[in-house]
Design goal:
The protein is mainly alpha-helical and about 200 residues long. It is about 80% helix and about 0% strand.
């Protein structure tokens, strides 16, 4: 299974990078409009404007395409969390909560249907070590922010807050919600309530 989740080769030349990006974007568009049921290597190749043989030079199976899209999503999320942690430095806990809550939703704001599809697919895929590490890095940033503000048991609290946030967001997105400003306000109230700070 591991070989089916990893790209065959990493594009090194610009032309190869463009081809690989076109394949991933085609797969993302199929996920957004038709769901994973319509995601086949033939469909992806046709939409990307490449042959199936070219696609297989980079990805051995559709699972490798999905895994790469999940990795990209988690890399973007980690960058959002790093930015939020920097923004919160030297400021109060309420500001840190605002920054982290906003970071946790940003990928949904970019491409809501894709984010929802990838999070669903991630549950079915066996996570590779890079994706596991990306998620651990996000958790560590939350732990560090909680520790900096004197929160007891920051590891357990981070676990609870991330689980709480994931549950609320997953349920809201599955229900078809697209008002992410309202969702962010509700999520902030839930996190603030857990931490016992003013919403």
């Amino acid at each position: 299974m591991k070989s089916r989740l990893n790209p065959r080769k990493t594009p090194r030349q610009e032309r190869s990078a463009v081809t690989c990006a076109a394949i991933l974007e085609a797969a993302a568009r199929i996920l957004e409009t038709s769901g994973s049921e319509r995601l086949t290597t033939n469909h992806v190749a046709a939409l990307a404007g490449v042959s199936v043989g070219t696609l297989y030079q980079y990805f051995p199976a559709k699972e490798a395409i999905l895994a790469e899209l999940v990795r990209q999503m988690r890399q973007e999320m980690l960058a959002d969390f790093v930015s939020a942690a920097r923004d919160a430095e030297g400021k109060g806990l309420a500001h840190a909560v605002d920054a982290m809550v906003a970071a946790s939703l940003r990928h949904h704001l970019r491409r809501p249907a894709l984010a929802q599809a990838l999070e669903r697919e991630e549950l079915e895929l066996k996570l590779d070590t890079e994706t596991v590490a990306l998620k651990a890095d996000m958790r560590d940033l939350v732990i560090a922010a909680l520790r900096d503000h004197g929160i007891d048991q920051p590891e357990r609290t981070a676990f609870d807050l991330m689980s709480l946030s994931r549950g609320i967001v997953d349920a809201a997105v599955r229900a078809g919600e697209r008002d992410f400003d309202d969702l962010q306000a509700r999520l902030r109230r839930a996190v603030a309530g857990y931490l016992g700070i003013a919403a």
